[in-house]
Design brief:
This protein is mainly beta. The protein has one domain: Sandwich (Tumour Suppressor Smad4). It has no helices and eight strands. It has a two-stranded antiparallel ribbon with strand order 1-8. A two-stranded antiparallel sheet has the order 2-3.
């Protein structure tokens, strides 16, 4: 899979920081994220959604929700050219769609101290 820079995805919601997901409010909803969907890359490789609902499925895969973690991956550290391993949860999911009493995860949802969810279902959306 080629490297996808958030400002190159064609959604058109970039702000001054260059991240589409900053302060993004999707009135019509955003695509649902599921087990195995990708997050944006930091150092190398793409973290994937690991945490998910065991009983709510999207296209046959568990729906990833607020507080569900991604796979362990590399994060830039405070030394000049270092990457440290970490895993992080979706910080805030949908306010209006709940999956097992947690905000439904969607593309562009922020991942705590990390980046954001990058890929998701092609045909299931959840509102803001």
């Amino acid at each position: 899979m080629p490297h996808m820079n958030p400002v190159d995805t064609g959604v058109g919601f970039s702000d001054s920081s260059g991240h589409e997901w900053d302060d993004f409010q999707g009135g019509f909803g955003r695509l649902a994220c599921r087990l195995g969907d990708l997050d944006y890359v930091h150092c190398i490789g793409y973290p994937m959604r690991l945490g998910h609902s065991m009983n709510v499925l999207v296209n046959g895969r568990g729906w990833s929700r607020q507080a569900d973690y991604n796979t362990p991956h590399l994060l830039p550290c405070y030394c000049p050219v270092c990457c440290c391993i970490h895993a992080a949860p979706i910080a805030v999911g949908s306010f209006t769609v709940k999956v097992n009493h947690r905000g439904a995860g969607r593309i562009f949802d922020k991942v705590q101290s990390c980046t954001a969810v990058m890929t998701g279902s092609s045909n299931v959306m959840a509102g803001g």
